[in-house]
Amino acid sequence: MRGAVLYGPRDVRLEEREAPKIIEPTDAIIRLPATCVCGSDLWDYRGIDPFTQPTPMGHEYCGIVEEVGRAVTTIKRGQFVIGSFFASDNTCPNCQAGYQSSCQHRELVGGAQAGMLRVPLADGTLVATPDPPSDDLIPSLLTLSDVMGTGWFAAEAANVKPGTTSAVVGDGAVGLLGVLSARQMGAERIIAMSRHEPRQKLAREFGATDIVTERGDDGVARIQELTDGIGADSVLECVGTHESMMQAIRSTRPGGFVGYVGVPHGVELDTHELFFAHVHLHGGPAPVRRFLPELIDLVWNRKINPGKVFDLTLPLENVAEGYRAMDERRAIKTLLRP
Amino acid sequence: MRGAVLYGPRDVRLEEREAPKIIEPTDAIIRLPATCVCGSDLWDYRGIDPFTQPTPMGHEYCGIVEEVGRAVTTIKRGQFVIGSFFASDNTCPNCQAGYQSSCQHRELVGGAQAGMLRVPLADGTLVATPDPPSDDLIPSLLTLSDVMGTGWFAAEAANVKPGTTSAVVGDGAVGLLGVLSARQMGAERIIAMSRHEPRQKLAREFGATDIVTERGDDGVARIQELTDGIGADSVLECVGTHESMMQAIRSTRPGGFVGYVGVPHGVELDTHELFFAHVHLHGGPAPVRRFLPELIDLVWNRKINPGKVFDLTLPLENVAEGYRAMDERRAIKTLLRP
Hints:
Two copies of one chain form a homodimer.
Chain A: E1 2-8, E2 11-16, E3 28-36, H1 41-45, E4 55-56, E5 61-68, E6 80-82, E7 86-87, H2 93-96, E8 107-108, E9 116-119, H3 122-125, E10 127-128, H4 138-143, H5 147-157, E11 165-169, H6 173-184, E12 189-193, H7 197-206, E13 210-212, H8 216-226, E14 232-237, H9 242-250, E15 252-260, H10 271-277, E16 280-283, H11 288-300, E17 310-315, H12 319-327, E18 333-337
Parallel strand pairs in A: 11-12, 11-14, 12-13, 14-15, 15-16, 17-18
Antiparallel strand pairs in A: 1-2, 1-4, 3-5, 3-9, 3-18, 5-6, 6-10, 7-8
């Protein structure tokens, strides 16, 4: 089996890897019709996150169950399934509270940029579609594994409600799907912050009513201007840098909500400022498992089409170009066909 | 008129000050039957907050309206009123959203450790009791001006709901009234963190079901132990130090809520840790005005007795001793009788 392996900054290679097999009796092996590159893969790709050894890449997946361990009871061979980047038992108190990405037995899923994948805790992690999907649904179903679930969590953590004003910081795939999520949750006004024309266009398609091209303090000033000097009710932080986080907090009205899903890199909160900002702050790794049934239903019934974030499709052989295109912001998100 | 003035670290003096008068037409002047020392006054008293000039102290007040400006329409001479440390117009969008302490026209009220006080924006700030209160109600009514309203906000920001488990970090007056608030909001289990026997006693009287005497990592370990390794649903942070804030965050279950009302002093949040902690964070200066009608009703009908936090009553002349007793933790909170 061939899979993508990161060897160092900007050095990702497709190489022969051992095909995954059942290790724990709760595992499943799935065959992947498609996989993709995540914005968070770029932290590693750019050498920003510490890196020690060649690492099989990829944590977004969906596909056909090929084999299950002997302790797996609900997931069956032949089902088309989707799971989260954090495997979870879905029974512990944290899972029951809806925070499966803080499952007491969680395991990171890795190596999904390949043709086959081992998923731990299959019964707790995987959710099956009603039937095998038609091929055109696969990109959208694949987004539910992370990027769509994460945008959805940003909107939910930011308390998006019908009739309210949302702002979205970040025009990567997560931010764009944050726009889609805010629209789906009934936000009346959705301000997307983006300087990139193709991304602005997709943001509008997903439901953005306003585009703000300014960043940092200027971006905050523009949001304040658009909201009568009060700030937005809900702000989705979908980047993870210090600048984006401060932009989010300062764009939120007192009593408003910041939902943050960008893994923080160098974010330093001025806690005195945060105190007087009066915002609600919630976020973290998205508990994708919680949202899967609802999101599968929305995709299955063609109510949402999050797969539109894939503006580049490549065969898995060209994975290196898939990373490069995202790194250079030539592509929003790369779909890879094994 | 005599009032308390801070001259420098641990140097508070009672001195002759000019009696307040109407400056703006929206002002009211009230006569104070009692006033008190706030835990937050100790930041100044201890020289921790920057200090430039002699400062009239005190921001907690209730009393009889003596005079109102010509633009004041709802507050009348002779009413017994309570207000917040932040005067607010109660009409701007932030006030309407329930965040009067972020009012677009807010003004800090100061100099309340005296016999008389000027309160700006009287109509928006002050709430009258149904009738003049009996003398024994005055301490409890006085707490509503800040300390009780702040404990209440901590519990509300921490999302205390019937049947849940709350923990309270801080055994000052705010923390103790956070316990009372959590009980009032229906928490089933309330864990008070305190090493001081008289404060533990009052915490139990206010509704604490468990006492944890350990602090820092040991305190966190104890909370985890008491909650089956999950953490509390709601944690009230009522101190404002780095240690207390980290203790609060680490004592909260994934998906749980931290309500923080201690003005942050030296708090440095590890945003990576915060992200993976999955907690909700909300706090700030309490929007006391929002809570006044409900809290006045509870005190008036003797459903709560927050005035019990005053374990030292002194004539205003002895204000210096009032500060000393709190600074040395000999007193929980000092009531001053002008």
